[in-house]
Write a structure and sequence with these properties.
Blueprint: H1 15-25, H2 30-48, E1 53-59, E2 74-80, E3 92-94, E4 109-111, E5 119-124, E6 135-140, E7 145-152, E8 155-156, E9 162-163, E10 165-170, H3 171-183, E11 186-190
Antiparallel strand pairs: 1-2, 3-4, 5-10, 6-7, 6-11, 7-10, 8-9
Length: 192
């Protein structure tokens, strides 16, 4: 038995017609439909709108601290214009570890020291904390001292093997420093 809103039973013969008539008089959710349509149209307009972007460098692979950036380590992706300042990647080395997919910011980079004209680079074992551009004093086995500039730091590969870094020295002392480094007969002093 069907009841109306006040609990009074509805007439049995015309109950089906009465219920259909009441449902026909109920308000359809026009405002909800209009709101949903407006939301879909706004989302479509936002997606289609031409937002200004520019290429920005991201790490294509993990870059270790002290590693020189090259074309294989950088991937250019679109970023909104003005969101980040684009760094100069020429002769840049990582000042910190940069994980794959991270943006390469100016604060994460250091720039390698240029070798002065007439100087030579000598491979020397360097501690991990030494970065390019650091001024060093190389004391040879006989007590002679030579000034130098770290051009490239020592690196450690995935197996834990360390490679020698490069230190620029004046041409007149390159032979003596090279021989002493080969014999392991040098002491490095670092500028504070």
């Amino acid at each position: 038995m069907a009841l109306n809103g006040s609990g009074v039973p509805l007439p049995t013969g015309s109950a089906g017609r009465y219920v259909r008539f009441v449902l026909l008089l109920s308000k359809p959710p026009y405002l909800r439909w209009a709101g949903a349509a407006a939301l879909v149209i706004a989302a479509l307009a936002w997606d289609v709108s031409a937002r200004a972007t520019e290429p920005y460098p991201f790490a294509a692979r993990s870059i270790h601290r002290g590693e020189t950036l090259d074309a294989d380590s950088v991937e250019w992706k679109a970023a909104p214009v003005g969101l980040l300042q684009i760094p100069d990647l020429d002769a840049a080395t990582a000042a910190v570890n940069i994980q794959q997919g991270e943006p390469i910011s100016i604060s994460a980079l250091r720039y390698t020291a240029a070798v002065p004209v007439g100087w030579w680079t000598v491979p020397i074992e360097l501690p991990p904390a030494v970065l390019p551009g650091t001024h060093v004093r190389i004391v040879l086995g006989g007590g002679d001292g030579v000034s130098g500039i770290v051009v490239e730091p020592s690196r450690e590969d995935s197996f834990g093997l360390r490679s020698a870094g490069l230190v620029a020295v004046p041409a007149h002392a390159a032979d003596a420093v090279g021989l002493a480094a080969g014999e392991g007969n040098i002491v490095l002093l670092f500028e504070p």
